[in-house]
Structures are given as C-alpha cells and as structure tokens.
Amino acid sequence: MKQYNAIKTKHPGALLLFRVGDFYETFGEDAIKAAKILDIVLTKRGNGTASEVALAGFPHHSLDTYLPKLVRAGQRVAICDQLEDPKMVKGIVKRGVTELVTPGVSFNDQVLERKSNNYLAALHIGRDQTGIAFLDISTGEFITAQGNQEYVRKLLQNFNPAEILFCKRAKEEFFTNFNQDYCHYALDEWVFGYDFAYENLTRHFNTASLKGFGIENLREGIIAAGCILHYLSETQHHDIKHIAAISRLEEDKYVWLDKFTVRNLELIYPQQAEGIPLIQILDQTVTPMGARLLKKWVVLPLKEISQIQRRLDTVEALIKNQELLQDVVHYLKQINDLERLISKVAVKRINPRELLQLSRALEALLPIKELMAYSNIPALQKLAGQLAPCEELREEIKAKVKPDAPMLTNLGNIINNGIHEELDELRKIAFSGKDYLLQLQQREAKNTGITSLKIAYNKVFGYYLEVTHAHKDKVPQEWIRKQTLVNAERYITEELKTYEEKILNAEDRIFSIEQQLFNELVLSLADYVPQIQQNAKVIGMIDCLASFASTAVQFNYVKPDVNENKVLNIKKGRHPVIERQLPLGEGYIPNDILLDTDEQQVMVITGPNMAGKSALLRQTALIVLMAQIGSFVPAEAAEVGIIDKIFTRVGASDNLSRGESTFMVEMTETASILNNLSDRSLVLMDEIGRGTSTYDGISIAWAIVEHLHNHPKSRAKTLFATHYHELNQLAEDLPRVRNYNVSVKEAGDKILFMRKLVPGGSEHSFGIHVAQMAGMPNDVVIRANEIMHHLEKDKISKGDGKKLSQMPKQKLQLNMFELNDPLMIKIRELFDKLDINTITPVEALLKLNELKMLSNEGKQV
C-alpha cells in the first residue's frame, strides 16, 4: 500500500489500475468509482481495522474489456504494471505507470469509433487571439489554427474533441466562453510558454524551424500544439514518430459556417434524437478513412473553384464509368483501417492479426492503383501515382507471419516455419514429444532386449524408464537407478534428462523467440509509416469521391455549375434529407430559387405555418454546401456562384443554463450574422422576431431586411421567411426585394399544403387551421376564429386600445346556433332559408340528409 500511495500521489487526477499478480486492483475512492462504472464487486481490505480500505479489481487479461468503459465514462486511467519478473525478485516487485489513457489519448479499438476521429484538443487563450490544436493520436493527424473565440468555438463544434487541455490560470475564462460539457484537463501555466512549445515541436519534427509547416507565425497555435506534445510525454506516450507533420487550418480557405449554422442545418449531428443529419445521407463510404474524411469535408466546404471542379469532374467521370466505380468500391471494401493500423505499428501496439490485415489492405491497393492508372480520368490517375505498393513490406509479413496467427502474441503460433532454426527444433520437441519418446523407447528396447520397457513421467523426477525385475540384469551400466518398486525399477538416462529439459523449457523458449522475431518485424516496418499514411490519405479521398458518385446515381442528383458569378439559381431543388424520409410513393415537391446581387437579392417568403418555409431555406443552404464540397446536388439544375459564408437563423431554443430566453438566443444569432456579412454571403432567416410582441417582432424583422438590402458593402443573398405579412410592403420600397409565398389551397374549411413557392405575398397564416389539425379543443378553435374575424374587421392600430375593449366577450353558456363555428354558420344559413309552412315531407327528408352530410364533413375536418 505504501508503494501504491507513492504512485497515486504522482497521478492524483487519474484512476490508478494497480497490477497485483494476475489482477488489476483499485483502492479507496478509485475502487468506489470503478465498481460503479464497471459493475464489479466492491470489497474491503483489512475489514474493521484502522487500515480498512475499499477494494475492487478484475483479471489482467480483461483489461481490454474494462478499460474502454472507464475511458468512455470520462476517466483518466493510469495503468501501473509490474516492471520486473516476480519469479526473479525477492520482496516487493518494482512497479510503475506504463501508460496514462485518457478520453483523448487512446489506441484501444473499443474506445475509438471506426467512422470518427478521436481528437485531443488544446486551447491557449492569448491576449488578442486564441490558439487551438487538434491531434488524433490513433491516426497521427495534427492540426493547428488560431483566431477569435467565435472561430475557435466553431472549430470545437466541428471537430468535437474527446478531451480539451487548457491552462489552469485561464480556467474561469474557459468555462465562461467554451462549452463545459467537454471532457477537460487543466495544465500548469509554464506548459503554455512560447519558447517551450516551439522547442518541443522542432525537437519532435527534427527541424530548425516551423516554416516548412506554414505555422511559423501562428504564435498562439504553436503554444497549443506544443502543449499537446507535452501532454503525450506526461501520459507516457513516447513512441509518436507517426505524428510526422503538423498542418495549418486556414480560415480563409473554407466556407464560413458559424456554430449556429452547423447546428441548424444538422450537418453531422441531428438536433432531435430521432433526427437524421446530412452526413447520414451522403455517407456511402466503405472504409473508415473515407468516413472520417467525409465528415471533415462536410464541415469545411471549399471556396477554391479549381479544387471544387476537380472533385465534381472526378465524380462525373465515375458516374459515366459505372463498371470502374463498382470495381473500385469492391476493392475498397477489402481495405481495413490502414491509417490506424500503421499508427499501431509506429507505437508498437499492433497484434499479429492486425499485421495480416495491414498486409491484405496493401494487397487490395494494387488493383485499385491499376484501375485508376488506366482510367483516363486525370484526377484518379494523379491519385494512382500517389499510391505506394510497399511490396517488400507485404512480402515480409507474408513470409514471416502465419496466415492463422492469433490476436495475442502470448498465445504463440505466430511465426512461420523455416524462419528460425532453433524455433523449428523447439516446435518439434514441444509438439512432437510423444513421437520422440516412442522412438526412444523402441530404440532402447531393441538395443537392450528389454521387451517390456516403458517410458513414463511423474512430478518427482520427470521422465523415467521402467524395467520389470525379470529384465533388470539387461539394464546398461550408464542408466541411473532412481526408484525401486515391488515389481519393477525406474531409471533415468543422460539423453532422457537432456530431452526432458528441452521439452519442459521448449514452450517458454518458443514464446521468447516468437516475441523477439515479431518485435523485430514490427520495428522493421516502422520505415514504411510515411508511405502507408500517404496511402491511407489517398484511399480516403478515393472513397469519398466514390461515395459522392454512388449517392448521385442512387438519389438522382445533378452536377452543379460552380462559378465566380454572384448568382444562385436552383431549378427544382429538393431537400436531400427530407426526400429520403417521405412515405413510399410520395414524391418531394421541388422548388426554384433565384438570388443575385442586382435584381433579386432578398426573397421575402410568407405562407402558413407547416407549409414548408423552413425546409425550403434549409434545402437551399444544403444544396450550396453540397456543391462546394464537390458533391452532386438534389435538383434539376443548379448554378452556384461561390458562397464564402453561410448564415442561418432557423429554429430556436432557450439557453436556460445561461439565463437566455428563446428571443435572446435568436437576437444573439442574428447579431452575429449582421456583424459578419460579406458580398458573397448566403443568409437564411426564419421567423425572426416571433419570440417577442407582434409590434416589436415586425419592427425588428423590417429593420433587418432594410439593413441587408441597404448594406453599403455587402449585398448578401437572403431568404427571409416570415409570418408577418406586413413585410410584403418592403418590396414596393426596396428594389431588390421580392415577395414569394408557399401556396395553399382552401377547400371549404380545409387547407391543403401545396409546398410550392409562387411569386407574391400571402395574406393569411392559417394558424387556426393548424391548431385544429393539431387536435386543439373545438371551443378554443371556435373562440380564436371569432377573435380573428373581429380583428380583421377592424384593423387595430398601435394606439387604438378602444377596439380591443370592444372585443366580443366569450359566452360561458353557448347556444349551438350562436357558436362562431363555420359548420354551425352553414347549418344556420340552411335553416334560415327554410319555410316550414310550405315544405313537403319529402323535401324535409332531403334537407335532413343534407344536414347529415354537412355534419359528417365537419367530423372529418
């Protein structure tokens, strides 16, 4: 316990797994936590004594089962192993922490998700800018950037790190400005020194400066990146040669998507538990590298036309050559997680079976390389040239590792026969022992003439020869007698003793030789890390482009025309997610959108609730975004003049944890948009001002449209959906504002949502109809109708309070003919026309039937 306490003191924030014999034990508070998370038995050591301590543990071979559960629960886990062989040591075995596993630093397949990166992030809050760095130790990807806190918050949302490091001194600022839900860890202030970080990075990359990586001038970004390398050293991760480079994330290279837009458009994660994000529709990748890269592409759309065009042309070529597409996908499916496998080679954590997977993956590269090289598609030919076949590596693995090698190295049977002479001999001894003993018995029986000679084994003196008393005079002199029985005597020989030693030590020696040969093989493969990382990168790109092609074919997408113009012209656009959720046989109703900076800069879209205004706004943003990541789009045709920023103000929710109402959140997001406009921005605003009073709401919405139209520098292309019909007036005053509405058809008291965008404003919201459809009690619907008719009859001006006082009062006891129910009004009109004195019995029956039909119609409504 003294030894345990000394090690625990060095790692106070971590849960310590302490190796004792064949178990990993936890003590005290750690044991209480572990028992709860792992659902294992909590016991006590020294029951009832002064030194009583809680205890919980599990067998050492179950580490891969229990460790992921602890890490996923947000625990930092220090693994303390025995550093000496207990057989060779008297007294307490020397122990030490061999690895500190945290949510952001793990190679365990049970902790990592195949289709997602597992990023460790570090933040450095500087005086003017904040530096941020991301590292996925399982793939070797290392990125740094710096910018204002808004930019850093957006990156955190996009990359969604498993763990964030920050300075203890900036703890309060971190919690105030960044999401507290992330798993986080605070480091000492000295770690965040510029000189320390710079030296750390140059020493690791073995360079004189950081100019070659393009980050030399990113002071805060360098500090954040250096902090990550220091943390790896602290957590006992020293084999990190696979982190071979660091890249800069350039803010101006990608479309600006603020954190609200990424959330509102549901690009990677749905807002509701049952929702479906865009990535789920687009992702038809078949390799983990492709799936991870596609997520980055979706949150980082491009602004460079040549790069977008290259992707679009490649996707188009793959669609035209379906046979090539199918063949490439077929071979891609055979490629395992090349990126993470080679990282495991670099850190010497790869097992024999994974080594075979690596070899098979490299083998599947060859036909892909060949197919693309002869494809006549320039981009694919270029990618084919970047694939390294690594033949020597494949041959070496194939020659040395058995095709049925086990997962664990301590199970033996890893190395092929014919590689190591002593190993082959030991295997013969260990696995052909009975045959050898039988041969020895037959040979000695023949040489001595003892026909009843037997070879046997016991624990006291091992292997022996047993001779009956009838033949003891034939025993050679060199045999050594060990035991006399009633009917026989037992002997040993020098040969038997030598063989016994060999057979008993063979398994230990086999294990030792196999471990040595396997480790040497893994070390020799380290030279191939850069080539295989490059292969993994290329395979990821091919997989993403093939996924775009497959999606386009399956869902009938078209190639967008992406150009330098300032026009957004979408013909018969569809929402990529909603169209996939429609019931069988029901088609998505497409719509046209035209926005430019000269004629139609702002589209004010009115129409009833539930008519599809929000879907129209979102689909426009998604089509632009898909076009600029190089994907085909759900439309009949689309011209997309490069967009540099996409802003959305769609939907709202309270941020009660910070004391912000729905309206406050809405205004914060809107302010962010209006303060960051550019000439190539796309702005989507939905129901601005609905969180406050009608007059405030109309005033704010009106002023926002005027600001967007009259902005001196930026004519941002805008879709403005609203239920304030008063805004239709703006089209008369502002030349680049146009009114549109999402049409509905009125059929009696029913409304049909046509979901079609047509020119002109809408006069009604049909809110009361929607309330009725939602199952609102009938008396509430009727009373609302009565109030609405009164208000529409006398348009209430802001200062005229008399009209409100003249509102018809609600009658508590209502006569059926006094109800302001449309059905009752029709029935009353029918009765008013009747002349009871002249009606015939047949006419009366016909009128009753008419009333019955009206009643049935009312029930359906």
The total beta strand count reads: 27
Major beta sheet, strand line-up: 13-23-24-25-21-26-27
Largest sheet entry: 7 strands, mixed
User: Which band does the percent of strand residues land in?
Assistant: 15-25%
Task: Summarize the structure in short.
The chain has 861 residues and is an alpha/beta fold. The protein has 6 domains: 100 residues, 3-Layer(aba) Sandwich (MutS, DNA mismatch repair protein, domain I), CATH 3.40.1170.10; 134 residues, MutS, connector domain (Nucleotidyltransferase, domain 5, 2-Layer Sandwich); 161 residues, MutS, DNA mismatch repair protein, Chain A, domain 3 (Orthogonal Bundle), CATH 1.10.1420; 94 residues, MutS, DNA mismatch repair protein, Chain A, domain 3; 204 residues, 3-Layer(aba) Sandwich (Rossmann fold), CATH 3.40.50.300; 41 residues.
Q: In terms of topology, how is this protein built?
A:
Elements: H1 2-10, E1 15-20, E2 23-27, H2 28-38, E3 43-45, E4 53-59, H3 63-72, E5 77-82, E6 95-101, E7 120-125, E8 130-136, E9 141-147, H4 149-159, E10 163-167, H5 171-177, E11 184-187, H6 194-205, H7 219-234, E12 247-248, E13 256-257, H8 259-264, H9 278-282, H10 288-299, H11 305-320, H12 322-332, H13 338-346, H14 352-373, H15 378-385, H16 391-400, H17 421-431, H18 433-448, E14 454-458, E15 462-468, E16 480-484, E17 488-492, H19 494-525, H20 529-555, E18 561-563, E19 568-573, H21 578-581, E20 591-595, E21 602-606, H22 613-628, E22 637-641, E23 645-649, H23 662-674, E24 681-686, H24 694-710, E25 717-721, H25 730-733, E26 737-747, E27 750-759, H26 767-773, H27 778-793, H28 802-805, H29 822-833, H30 841-860
Parallel strand pairs: 1-5, 7-10, 9-12, 10-11, 13-23, 18-22, 21-25, 21-26, 23-24, 24-25
Antiparallel strand pairs: 1-2, 2-4, 3-4, 5-6, 7-8, 8-9, 14-15, 15-17, 16-17, 19-20, 19-22, 26-27
Helix pairs in contact: 6-7, 10-20, 11-20, 12-14, 12-20, 13-14, 13-20, 14-15, 14-16, 17-19, 26-27, 29-30
